Fold:
Amino acid sequence: MNGFDYRGGVLHAENVPLSAIADAVGTPVHVYSAGALRHAATGFKAALGHLPSPRFAFAVKANPNSAVLRLLADAGYGADIVSSGELRRALAAGIAPAGIVFSGVGKTDREIGDALDAGIGQFNLELEEEGRVLASLARDRGIRAPAVLRVNPDIDGGTHAKISTGRRENKFGVAIADAPDMYDRLARLEGMDLRGIALHIGSQLGDLGPLEAAYRRVGALVFELRRRGHGITRVDLGGGLGIPYRSDDAMPSFDEYGAMVTRATDGWNVGLTFEPGRVIAGPAGVLLTRVIWVKPGATYPFVIVDAAMNDLARPALYDAYHRFAAVMPSGETMTANIAGPVCETGDVFGMARTIDRVERGDLAVLETTGAYGAAMASTYNCRPLSPQILVDGDSFTVVGDRIMPAEFAA
Ligand code: LLP
Structure:
């Protein structure tokens, strides 16, 4: 795990022992490694940098922390946003409006207006009517809205059903068969500056095959649109690359992805946009937690930790796997269920797992939580939003406070 390793028997984030962070801010706490974020950000760009005028828009939904966004802005990333809230975060982090892409199947008129006023670089249209509203709001402002049409290529990305977006029954994009005529109609609208196509078939994709098939469908569409006289200058290839959560997960490397993109987009003659989220932020975070109890169970004991599904919803939502490791492992192991304090049976991080032996009071981490971790936190059970820490070399900074439910309106 890049950015996190054991030194002298203690798990560190870069040069900082996680025990020092727990002492300083308490647990549970989300900890990010700035070095790991930079490493992924530069590695991803390097693997695709040879492609024609590439643009990189970090999917803010994966980790909207302002310090993380600033770091990625410094690494040359724009932002893929899905709400006015994300727009504000991206702008506040210093991301240039021209580098912002607005995705999402339910943009309100107000959100579209906010984004037009901010001068963002690209709207990804999800339906024809949205294009008409966008064009008319742009016309009212005396401008033309830069946009691409998101298509649904009807390809199963082979990921969890709840994070699959490219099958025809999913809510995203317009049917690829309908796209040519729709593109003709939208491109004619006053106030519309339609430049190309977007797609995104799902997240945590472990196999490049479906992605390549989807790209090839889009390639055929690009040629059809050119045949109809459209000047197609940009294709947004979305995000979706998977990362290893289990020790033995084999995931495509950035270079393998780069080689596939190069092959699949050969001859398109367009600028390419990428919207990576998980691959940038996921490996760069852990959720640091403390064991409250080791409670006897019918088959295996329950290791009850102070982090819960409100801090990390992925296991409860998608049966997702996150490795569990002690901060100061003794070398012994145990088989146990790992659970949080929330009053739901589903508030478990793993069942029948062989893990480092832990006892009441020990510190442990759930690994690979930098993407869709704090981003999806809630205050369920009136629990606080956990703090967020960014470690950079020898130092760490609180980049997100612990927010108590009492600080929210009831
Ligand atoms: N672009 C679009 C249009 C998206 O919908 C998404 C993710 C991304 C880019 C970034 O995808 P990534 O590179 O991170 O796979 N909460 C779920 C993941 C939901 C993904 C939603 N869309 C999870 O924890 O697995």
About this structure: The chain has two domains: 4-33+282-407, 104-274.
